[in-house]
Amino acid sequence: MNKIEQTIYNGWQTYQDKLIQALAPLTAEQLDLRPAPHLRSIREIAQHIIGARGRWFYRLMGEGGAQMEALGIWDRLGMHGLPTPEM
């Protein structure tokens, strides 16, 4: 891995750690809060982040295999409302 790739991976890990730190203490009710009725809930935003990252790793970078492929659909139609422990 070259220096640029290492910097990118380190940044992604830092981002991942901060995302976990922010979401872990939230209750199911807090995750379902919306700033307005027509906007996404905290849970839906988190699912979108997870899904997008899964797609980036699996489709664009060819990394992660079936597990990353599965994460890539978390924010797609019908996937809303995943239980809190899965997040």
Describe the structure.
The chain is mostly helical and 87 residues long. The chain has a domain at 40-76. Helices cover 59% and strands 0% of the residues. The chain contains 4 helices and no strands. The chain has helices at residues 3-23, 28-31, 42-60, 65-71. α3 runs antiparallel to α4. The chain is globular and about 45 Å long. The model has no long low-confidence stretch (mean pLDDT 84).
Helix-strand sequence? HHHH
Cα-to-Cα separation, first versus last residue: 29 Å
Calculate Rg over CA atoms: 14 Å
* Helix content estimate: 55-70%
Count of DSSP H/I helices: 4
- Sheet/helix structural class: mainly alpha
- Fraction in beta strands: under 5%
Biggest pleated sheet: none
Tally of strands: 0
- Which outline best applies? globular
Mean pLDDT: 84
Low-confidence stretches: none
